[in-house]
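User: Here's a chain of 277 residues. Predict its fold as tokens.
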Amino acid sequence: MEELFKRNLLRLRQPLAPKTYAEALFGDVNWAKEITPKTIHKIESKIEFSEKKQVLESLERFAQEKMTASPEATIKIPGGEIAVKPEPSWEGISQYKNFEELKTNLSIEEKIIELCLKSKSPEAVKIMFVPENFRPYEEIKEELKEGFINQLLPAFPFKTAELFSRMLAAMKLEDKEVLIYPTQMGQKDLSQEVMQVAGFYRPEIIVTLGATPTHKILKGQERLSQVHGEFFNRKIENIGTFIVVPLFHPSIIETNQNMKKTAWSDMQKIMKQLKKL
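Assistant: Prediction complete.
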């Protein structure tokens, strides 16, 4: 299998064989190329693409098998090697003994901290939602009602907060199990603080809501359309490894009814992980 892997890789690196005598003699120049009808050219391109795709897929399967057997393995190939790319990790995240110590190192308004974090216990929190931004207290104080929805209002307009509250209820999550903290407050980046809060409360899952929080917490540029509902591991040095699951922002579900099925499918994966399903 390893020999096949090397042969296929070398095959991909080799230039295509010349199609005409002139092309073989003078090289890859436009005037030496054989002129063929466009329809035939399209067919050849599709065949070539399909063949390359199959070879690449077989190489990927081989590499995955090798790495699964030995995660530290390095596959030597002619002209180089293939090794597992290390996952990004978080360094320099402080550990805190109690809530008061944590609170003094957070940037969001004290009234928002009291609203969203004070009632939470590290023993009870199971899931942490990470939206992009929080609204200031002055903006939400007229919307405050009774109950858990108050903890969601810094992250969402009232109507979206109601929708998100129903989503949490559908996931069978209790108020005490849910935590929420943003990656941004105004123009200030709070990504480090998100991980400080996670390190203190130790949620089983961190759920990023939308593309920007996903990029910041995963430390990558993955397209949300390709990674939503997938499970990633991100390590906080000296604290532990956390599961991160990207989801679409609830405002998208609110405005696009076709997204409800996708959202519910992603939520069920999280429920299964939390033994809620």
